[in-house]
Amino acid sequence: MSGRPSIVPVGSGRESGGSQFGGPSTRDGSQAGSGPRDSGQRDAGHRDTWHRDAGQDDAVPEKQRRRKPFIRSAGVRFAIVYATIFGLSAFALAFSVWYSTAALLQRQVEIAIRNDAAVLSDDFTAGGLPSLVGAINSRLAENFEMDAIYLLAGPPGERITGNLQAWPNGIDQSAAWYELPVRRHGARSVALLRAYDLPGGFRLLVGRDLTSRTQLRYLLRDGLLWAMAIMLALGLLGALVIRSMFRSMIQDISNTTRAISRGDLARRVNISGNGDEFDELADNINEMLDRIARLMDGVRQVSNSIAHDLRTPITRARARLEDAALHAHTQADLRSAIERATGDLDAIIAVFQALLRIAEIEAGSRRSAFAELDLVPLLTDIFELYHDVAEERGLSLLAHFAGPLPLWGDRELMQQAITNLLDNALKFSAPGTSISFTAKLEDAMISIAISDRGPGISPRDQQRATERFFRAESARNTPGSGLGLALVVAVAQVHNGTLRLLDNHPGLRAVIACPASSRAGFDTRAGTRARPR
Fold first, then answer.
1. Angle CA 170–171–177, to nearest 5
2. Partners of 396 in the β-ladder
3. Which residues partner with 500 through β-bridges?
4. Of 276, 271, 241, residue with least CA distance to 256
């Protein structure tokens, strides 16, 4: 096989992939330069108009921010929610303490009444009525708290002994609890009472005065109310503090975004250094802003590069057509000038096609064409195609492919990326040197490496080699537009892979690394099959 390969690289070239799309840019020609200057003036006018519009638009939100209701503030709403939750929690805690204490006091009174009734019942059983009367009188004499209530009534209902003058109205059932007002020693109070039926028609009433318990409940209630008021005040204070912190952070973000919208692209959100969620949010926002700044800078660089790189072929085509219009004497001279101008315009179209292809790849629209494939046959075809081209240039192309190399991807894109790298290696390799073309599978990653013995890329230029339209100083005099490596990077990324540019001592070693596929049941262990030439 001889001749140039039929697989034509798009935008290949060492200078971040220079290509056959045109030569180095020149800055001559007043007419060619007038367009960018006019465009720059128009852009400046648009920028001035934009800044004026932005200032007018910013005035309205500022007034709206001053006039908006206080409750519409997110910090205020957050503080209200926090205070409400804190207040409800405090109320639930206070109510549970009050209820538990009141229930405990109630149970203690009931236990005391039952114990008294049981002892008195035993006295009645052991000694009869005299023993019961003596026991009641003894208890009344020893009751220093004056809260015990006893009443013993005979069969007709007359009072026998106790500290109540008569049987209270409403107590008609035995072994039932009654909370009734009673009069003792000329004073009225509320008592908890329980009646018991004794043998012989006698009835015993045992109870406790609830005045002290009621006072204790009132004291506990007042204490809990004060505690709730203090907790509510602390909750409101905490809500105000949280609102202040929340507002401070949001205000910083708002001021930063407002400054950026007005053109201060260097503004960033302040980081407190506490390492909390707000710092994490600020760090993410700053990273996003840095990314946007880099993208905008890249857009400006691409725009400038397009203007510089396309001005030369456009100026050359115009000059050739103008020269043909003025000096062409025969139809053959005119046709030749038109063909050369058409070639220059075709190179311009090819640059835009390469840019559109890179944008299409980066957008991921080509993923719909992904399929399971083995890269070994593809690499073999590419090797066979470029082997004769290398021989024509006095180069030696050596290949070794350890397969199978299963990949879930786009065959056409991978072919384009690899041919771009091979075209770079052929372009910058001196006659008599060799180019290594290898591929292997290791640790579930497919590595495709192309190594040459050319001038290589300096460490400083390696950082920018994959930028669009970037051309190293050593590649300024070689054909290309600086899109080849940018396309390779886009292809690698759409396959979840990477492109690494390494020093080959001397020369350059370009490595595409992509994850191997296991969908089609390939054996992902490294194979041993080689395809030498």
1. 115
2. 434
3. 511
4. 271
Calculate ∠ Cα 350-355-359, nearest 5°: 145
Alpha carbon distance 476, 470 (integer Å):
10
d(CA 473, CA 468): 15
Q: How many Cα neighbours within 13 Å face the side chain of 290?
A: 7
Structure token pair of residue 377: 């046959």
Q: Give the phi and the psi of residue 348 in degrees, each rounded to 5.
A: -65, -45
One DSSP character per residue, 43-81 reads: HHHHHHHHHHHHHHHHHHHHHHHHHS-GGG-HHHHHHHH
> 44 vs 49, 109, 333, CA distance in Å?
9, 91, 43
Continuous H helices in 262-362? 277-327, 331-362
pLDDT value for 437: 92
Q: What is the pLDDT of residues 199-236, one digit of tens each?
A: 888 888 898 888 877 777 788 788 878 887 887 788 77
d(CA 452, CA 501) in angstroms, rounded, equals 12
Counts of helices then strands in the chain (DSSP H, E)? 9, 12
